[in-house]
Task: structure prediction
Amino acid sequence: MDKDIPSRLLPTDSYRQADAPQLDAVRLLVVGDVMLDRYWFGDVSRISPEAPVPVVRIEKREARLGGAANVARNAAALGAHCGLLGVVGNDEAGDEVEQILRDSSIDTYLKRDEQIATIVKLRVIGHHLLLAPDHAQLDDGGNGLVAFQVAADAAALQQRRHFIARLVVADDAQ
Result:
């Protein structure tokens, strides 16, 4: 091995000496698919007589941000000043997403679209994950045009320097 070529790897203890970034000074705008992840937790005590599937008695329900909204929540939880730009339906799930974002101190730049439903992912959990139906729309539903509008909105916000120091594009490729 040539000793003249410096290693690009950090020494094993270097992370202890590195300063943590000042995330409270970071201003981010996250752009992408906004989702609501719902979790239903329960107990499985029997198998259905109608089909060989577990019957779950739901005991607890939780709603969490998913997709780009989860990226924004994680950045905000680390201390960054964060905004979210995306599209949700003009429905109950969209209302819930907006409320969770407000509770998480995330600035919202959401487009509410009457033509689409907010993407909701439901997970039913007994002793382990039992069911994860996909409630996303099967066709584009005009989302190509919506994506163009979101990109235009992001460019306008960037140009005005209204919020953004950094732009994060979140896409889970589904």
